[in-house]
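Hey, I'm writing a tutorial for new members on how sequence and structure tokens pair up, and I'd like a real worked example in the thread rather than a made-up one. If someone can provide the structure for the chain below, I'll link this post from the tutorial.
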Amino acid sequence: MTLKRAGGACSHANLIERLRASEHVVGRALESLTAAGLVSNDLDTAVYMPSSRAVGASVDRAEELYQRKPNAVRRAIIGAHSNSLAAFADAFKLRKADDD
């Protein structure tokens, strides 16, 4: 996690530069990390701040797993995203009415 490795705090501009991402992408990621209890975020600075020791320990375990098996972690992330997209798409499928 970039914030964790950066000593805990980074400006939004610095994150955009480090991640080579748009302001929109970084902003959305920070919103998600804040909602997950991993980051404290204000107008121009984000700070790695797990909401509990258990959350921090989960981040540490995820980092360790990624170091050992990066492809497995990537597949899990992509698979979870694909399942969400499939479920969303299924909600819009037209179903054939019963002939009763």
